[in-house]
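User: Hello! My lab partner asked me to get a predicted holo structure for this protein. The small molecule is pyridoxal-5'-phosphate, SMILES included with the sequence. Please write out the structure tokens.
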Amino acid sequence: MTQAISQRDIEALWMPFTANRDFKKQPKTIVAAKGHYYQAADGRQLYDAFSGLWSCGLGHSHPKIVEAVQHQLTELDYAMAFQMGNDKAFALAGKLTEMAPAGFNHAFFTNSGSESVDTALKIALGYHRVKGEAQRTRLIGRERGYHGVNFGGISVGGIAANRQLFSANLINGVDHLSHTYNLEHAAFSRGQPEWGGHLADDLERLAALHGGANIAAVIVEPVAGSAGILPPPVGYLERLRELCTEHGILLIFDEVITAFGRVGANFAADRFGVMPDIITTAKGLTNSMIPMGAVLVRDEIYQTFMQGPDQAIEMFHGYTYSGHPVAAAAGLAALEVFHEEGIAAQAKALESGFETVLHSLDNHPMVKDVRTIGLMGAIELIPRDNAPGARGLEAHKACFWEQDLVIRNAMDTLQFAPFLNAKPDDLEKTVAAVKSVIDGLL
Ligand SMILES: Cc1ncc(COP(=O)(O)O)c(C=O)c1O
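Assistant: Hello! Below are the structure tokens for the protein in complex with pyridoxal-5'-phosphate.
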């Protein structure tokens, strides 16, 4: 049943990553969702061109996941997660590691992407110390990287706005590779830009500066998502892998967005054929029905921790809700749907049509750049003079109120994350609606 809400209720909620004062003048409230559509509080059906927040790729309220969650709630609501386990968490760890790239046979459960990232950084630091290389303490992120909002994640993250308020308290010993975006050489890219593979050599610079033997890990999103969909240049990830191996540095792929079909494969590691040492996930793991994340590690990392007396806890880390049975039941059902419905193959088949429709706006006078890879797409608008972000937010609002369409804007970049089982017609209609919105922008 839909909940009646008052203006006081709206005021009471401090909204995440939202311009609260602007939003509350005309709240965009969702009360239901099914399949590819949201229902707004005013009764309108809105097409969701962002799959939740990159995260409900199978469609909203998928009946199989709903059923699994409902059933689980009547069977086991919760069980202590420390020194005990539940059947669904074990089963999900088994299924997840089965579909992961070879050698990733261990999963640590979290409740979000941010927690997955901080867990992965702690695993990397702990691994070196347990292995007897305690001097490896430095962490390397990348400019324009997004790794969630916890202290580890914002420290290795490279989005200035997420860091500046907290700049004095970011964790020590972190550096950033330069980002890979270059408008001059790689504008209107379809898939991986040809230019920019050499930018991975930036790691050599940092290894020379600090000593490669002092670096614990490099963390990158295989495709930078939140910063505006920046696909890796050809050869970039391969070179990063090569340099990490050469210097004994762990490579972490933050696949919170890219795992579970978003780039037309189980994992971006599979698509690009580059194997990291640690993979972080969340979002698509449960199709977002219940919050959950997982960190996958290579066998050697897990085995390195498994030393000392048997009764000793190997890693002092974990969450009350690590492997929550209801989340794990949602995860099991989501992975079953993912395999049964051939979701990665469906996403792969949709990629070229999606690329074509989004790039139909390449020559629009309001458009600065268009980038696509897998089912991730960005249309970067030319910013309005002295009002960066204004056009993007206006476009997002006009889509919502006038086109019954949900897209995301990050400043002036409009972002698209279609359902992994989207209908090609809907992708065309989405871009036609966006075109009519940006035609009308000042
Ligand atoms: C690559 C990446 N890492 C981490 C996160 C953080 O995930 P969460 O919002 O679930 O904490 C996100 C969220 O979008 C992400 O895109």
